[in-house]
Amino acid sequence: MELMYSSTRNQNEKVTASQAILKGLANDGGLFVPDAIPALDVSMEELAKMSYQETAYAVMKQFLTDFTEEELKTCIERAYDSKFDTTEIAPLVEAQGAYYLELFHGSTIAFKDMALSILPHLLITSARKNNVKNEIVILTATSGDTGKAALAGFAEVEGTKIIVFYPKNGVSPIQEKQMVTQKGANTHVVGIYGNFDQAQSGVKAMFSNPALKEELDKAGYQFSSANSINIGRLVPQIVYYVYAYAKLYANGVIGKDEKINVVVPTGNFGNILAAYYAKNMGLPIGKLICASNENKVLYDFFETGEYDKNREFILTNSPSMDILISSNLERLIYRIAGNDAAKNAELMKSLSTIGKYEITSEMKENLKDFYGNYTSEAETQAVIKDIYEDTGYVIDTHTAVAAGVYKKYKEVSGDTETKTVIASTASPFKFTRSVMNAIDAKYDSWEDFELVDELSKIGNVMVPNAIEEIRNAPVLHNTVCEVDEMEKVVKEFLSK
To answer: Helix or strand or coil: residue 386?
Structure first.
């Protein structure tokens, strides 16, 4: 049976999976959600024997029901290939009693590769299925990782152009260099004088601008998104939670139907929402532990039921989580409101007009699957140092936020026995300065690539190819603009 998708703000807007992937955002500004969460239809015994690619098909076929078996399997084969530096794609590493799910073995060494390796293939297939003649313009905002992963995925993909906006002073030096050295005539990278939330709001405004849409259509273009607001980004992320559980089961770490906890360092809420969807598919997940940095808008929400973005925006050493508007939370709000699009639209209107909203006590009851907390900058550094000195395992700042919150969860709940998977969302090589300074303050004066080589030595790991590639790469993108100039920059690039 075909699974349809509705807007979180208008249940009457129904589309197929391929149409939802093509559009990215609904006409009313809402996000596309499946009308039901499908159940896993293969046993854990079968999943335990599957490769990552086979697991991806078993999960994704349930959501992308208007794709043929051949179409979906082709997309999966092209995505999860030799660009990953391990055949496992997402290996598990045990350290201090937790299982770190390493999601950074793709071409840009961050978890976004897991979904952005397949999104271009899903998008081009969707365009073919829906007889789209326009060139597709991927328009996206990034807090650091989505941008490079999307650029790498879409570079030189026929029939597409990609424009990435990032906060000029809000990403790590390595993240910025990865983006501004990106090759490809169809790629454009733009720094803005502002923060990620402003970049994301600017992108959303362009998506929901009917006059701009008409102007682009006449010029032979249409927008789509590579952000986690695109359902084609979210569905592939469900896969690695299923894969991790199946591997723990296959290795005898957990028994049949034994519950695990999942800890996710969280910014835009897409990665933890994917774990929530996996749980609702029938995967035995106990607690979904939502880890924030000092921009703790999500922690405050889980504590109080009020989402309030009216606060200081803090630049931290985990920049991919420096977010005050967690876009994907809307999908959860819609669900805990009983799939009430009108109620969700009312709350989202409140967020856009006064910067906050409050959920009902009934809705708060539906959040029992979640636990939220945060770690300070000092605590994050201490976690990196402690794990390295205790085990020799080096983690990045975002993963350290998750590990710090997991420690707090155990102390508060007393739940020390449940096997726990921590989503390790980026390679420590992506944040070498922050990571190395946490291990020893003596590294503060070292150059960026000196730190890279030292990290390789002390962590006993090879320097990833993604870092070697940018060591001497020339800067190809140097456009910087004000927030209110974003639309102008897009038009200029498309008119070339």
So the answer is: helix
Q: What percent of the chain has pLDDT above 70?
A: 100
Query: Residue 475 and residue 44: Cα distance in Å, rounded?
Result: 48
Q: Which of 224, 79, 204 is nearest to 161 (CA)?
A: 224
Nearest to 270 by CA among 376, 120, 111: 111
Distance CA 106, CA 153 (A): 11
In three-state secondary structure terms, 325 is coil
Sign of torsion over alpha carbons 416, 420, 423, 428: positive
421 and 485 in contact (C-beta within 8 Å)?
no
Phi, psi torsion values for 12, nearest 5 degrees: -80, -15
* Residue reference for tokens 């990045």: 396
Q: Which residues contact 489 (CB under 8 A, 6 or more apart)?
A: 163, 190, 479, 481
Q: What is the mean pLDDT of residues 41-52?
A: 98
Q: For residues 81 and 53, is the Cβ–Cβ distance under 8 A?
A: no
What per-residue confidence (pLDDT) applies to 13?
87
Under the phi-then-psi rule, with left for phi > 0, alpha for psi from -120 to 50, and beta for the rest, what region is 29? left
CA pair distance 416, 494, nearest whole angstrom: 54
> Element (H or E) spanning 278, and its range?
helix 270-280
Q: Which residues contact 102 (CB under 8 A, 6 or more apart)?
A: 90, 91, 92, 93, 424
Please pick, among 23, 112, 204, 287, the residue that the annotation labels catalytic.
112
- pLDDT for 255 equals 97
Quick one: CA dihedral 154, 238, 201, 295, positive or negative? negative
**pLDDT category of residue 439 using cuts at 50, 70 and 90:** very high
pLDDT range class, residue 98, cuts 50, 70, 90 = very high
d(CA 304, CA 56): 36
Model pLDDT for residues 178-229, shown as the tens digit of each residue: 999 999 999 999 999 999 999 999 998 999 899 999 999 999 999 988 877 8
How many Å apart are CA 232 and CA 150, to the nearest integer? Answer: 12
Q: Look at residue 487 in the predicted model and tell me its pLDDT.
A: 96
Could you tell me what percentage of the chain is helix, strand and coil, using 3-state DSSP and rounding each to the nearest 5?
50, 15, 35
Of 142, 241, 337, 119, nearest to 329 by C-alpha is: 337
Q: What is the mean pLDDT of residues 77-93?
A: 96
Buried/exposed code over 399-435 (b: 16+ C-beta within 10 A; e: otherwise): bbbbbbbbbbbbeeeeeeeebbbbbbbbbbbbbbbbb
Instruction: Name the percent of the chain lying above pLDDT 90.
Output: 89
129 is a catalytic site residue:
no
User: Which pTM value belongs to this model?
Assistant: 0.92
